[in-house]
Amino acid sequence: TISTIQAMEILDSRGNPTVRVFVELSDGTASVASVPSGASTGENEAIELRDGDMTRYAGKGVLKAVANVNHKLAPVLLGMDPFKQALIDHTMIALDGTVNKSNLGANAILGISMAVARAAAKSANTPLYQYLGGTGARRLVVPCMNIINGGEHSDNNVDFQEFMAVPLGAPNFREGLRYVAETFHVLKGILKDRGLATSVGDEGGFAPNLNSNEDAIETIIQAIEKAGYKPGIDIAIALDSAANSFSTDMCNNYDLKWSGTGAMKSNDLINLAEEWVKKYPIVLWEDPLAERDLDGFKQFTARLGDKIEVVGDDLFVTNTQYISRGIAHKEANSALIKLNQIGTVTESIEAVRMCRDAGWRYFISHRSGETEDTFLADFAVAMDGGHLKSGSASRSERVAKYNRLLEIEQQLGEDALYYWK
Ligand code: PGA
Ligand code: ZN
């Protein structure tokens, strides 16, 4: 049974406070888990409880969430069976009593949820990826590496948030990671030669001022070739527009900095996307439109959904309520999965299951604010979705997840699988 639950305030990769939870079981097994935090958040995400006390961390302290773990959640959960993950998560959801976990905080609840899962796996002497995914969990994930950062993750002029290199032609995970890490290094040289900045954004990708969003893609393709790989065969491209951040009304009005054309409608963006998908080896496009632009998403998916993976992030916020709407109306064909958007391990697994049942893909993701916690790597293998995004080959909070995946691949040995579709 669970004998100790204790939270503390730590810092994330942006230097903002976040929650860490320590759990101990009566058999002596101990574990910790740390909660990530996003910057370009969807309107319907579960609520990250922050103190609002302006004398500490500009109001971003999480001492209230820590106190909720220690004084409100722990007393109810102590003595419970750590192997009953769904019961524990549903007990916390009921105790919170709101639809978006705004009472006790999704950061408080998720910290416990992750730490309990990890303690149970350890106590059962099972790797976390197999504890959560079953003994059949043996498929590694294609690392979609975000090598150019824009949008709200950097201060450059690039509107689209993420430009990812996708090593779908590699024979295994460690080779895939090498393909894109080498591309990252070659890209640095190309940017340097052009006299551009090689400093990195929040997710470890370069954040130069470029001529256009298209310039970012063309420069990445150049880097792929120069690194000795074939664009589209060895390494493809994935994009996250995070279109909320350049929409003026969260619906079908947009304003791109680089375009010079001023206002754009969703149809203009869809036409542009169609052109790019013809021209470039793009295999996945996340949040191409803003979260309330449901008609835009339907149009986008109708026109491109048979060619690429269309992922809803801010659109669905890992919530089965919105994913089911999306499935019914064909708003996309894939959902991004972020544990802290919904706030428990159990609900994240339910979101994955809903996607799987509908024949959708699902894309496991870190947040722009991360910690050294590698839960995500095990979770991605457990969910068997075939791909994950964890930023670039720089910044240890990003690389920690990739290193854990290397470890899992090594543990699995010949049993390990790796493929895109
Ligand atoms: P966030 O960005 O963690 O800042 O929300 C990640 C994403 O939009 O996919
Ligand atoms: Zn996104």
From TrEMBL:
Protein name per the record: Enolase
GO molecular function: magnesium ion binding; phosphopyruvate hydratase activity
Keywords: Cytoplasm, Glycolysis, Lyase, Magnesium, Metal-binding, Pyruvate, Secreted
GO biological process: one example: glycolytic process
Transmembrane segments: none
Catalytic activity: (2R)-2-phosphoglycerate = phosphoenolpyruvate + H2O
Localization per record: Cytoplasm; Secreted; Cell surface
EC number assigned by the record: 4.2.1.11
Entry-linked InterPro entries: Enolase (IPR000941), Enolase-like_C_sf (IPR036849), Enolase-like_N (IPR029017), Enolase_C (IPR020810), Enolase_N (IPR020811)
Binding-site residues for substrate, renumbered to this chain: 153, 162, 286, 313, 365-368, 389
One Pfam family from the record: Enolase_C
Cofactor dependency: Mg(2+)
NCBIfam families: eno
Domain of life: Bacteria
Record text on subunit structure and interactions: Component of the RNA degradosome, a multiprotein complex involved in RNA processing and mRNA degradation.
Pathway entry: Carbohydrate degradation; glycolysis; pyruvate from D-glyceraldehyde 3-phosphate: step 4/5
Cofactor note: Mg(2+) is required for catalysis and for stabilizing the dimer. Binds a second Mg(2+) ion via substrate during catalysis.
Family: Belongs to the enolase family.
Annotated positions binding Mg(2+): 240, 286, 313
Domain Enolase N-terminal: 2-132
Enolase C-terminal TIM barrel domain segment(s): 137-421
Role: Catalyzes the reversible conversion of 2-phosphoglycerate (2-PG) into phosphoenolpyruvate (PEP). It is essential for the degradation of carbohydrates via glycolysis.
The species this protein was found in: Shewanella polaris
